[in-house]
Design a protein that fits this description.
Distance between the termini: 55 Å
Number of helices: 3
Radius of gyration: 20 Å
Order of helices and strands: EEEEHEEHEEEH
Strand content: 35-45%
Structural class: alpha+beta
Number of strands: 9
Strand order of the largest sheet: 1-5-6
């Protein structure tokens, strides 16, 4: 039996469809669409996700993110499903250059919109447009030096 993708509220799930079309099946709350995924798992989503997948003209194997979001409508909590193309895991060229420099120095990098997170040993460096940096001084200094940053 295939592993079923479990969607937690407000947590995007990366997926890649095995086929562009899913199979409509009866669900607990009405009809759903079952998609086989490239990694061997299966996911069940509302018909609205199938409609969005069709609008996006998703090809088999294309990376997507599916999210079951909690939103408020007229003050009441409701569930909204979204699907979007997943950004390339490699990131922009500038991020790739930074990743190579940090990896060569024994550090590694996670990049998100306007934020760098650099796990280093038992500490973490976060630097971003709207975030502050927090780490043990040694790791932050090592990251700054590796990237050629001047004093902050």
């Amino acid at each position: 039996m295939k592993e079923k993708v479990m969607f937690e509220t407000n947590v995007p799930v990366p997926v890649a469809l095995a086929q562009a079309e899913g199979t409509e099946v009866p669900g607990r709350c009405g009809d759903e669409v079952m998609y086989n995924l490239q990694d061997g798992r299966v996911m069940f989503v509302p018909l609205s996700i199938r409609d969005e997948v069709r609008k996006l003209e998703v090809k088999p194997g294309e990376p997507l993110q599916v999210c079951k979001r909690e939103v408020e409508v007229l003050g009441e909590p409701c569930i909204e499903w979204t699907v979007s193309r997943k950004e390339s895991s490699q990131g922009p060229k500038a991020v790739q250059v930074v990743q190579r420099k940090l990896e060569a120095a024994g550090l590694w990098l996670l990049a998100a919109a306007h934020c760098l997170t650099i796990p280093a040993g038992n500490s973490v460096v976060r630097a971003g447009k709207s975030s502050t940096s927090s780490t043990r001084a040694g790791s932050w200094f090592k990251a700054k030096t590796t990237l050629g940053f001047g004093p902050f």
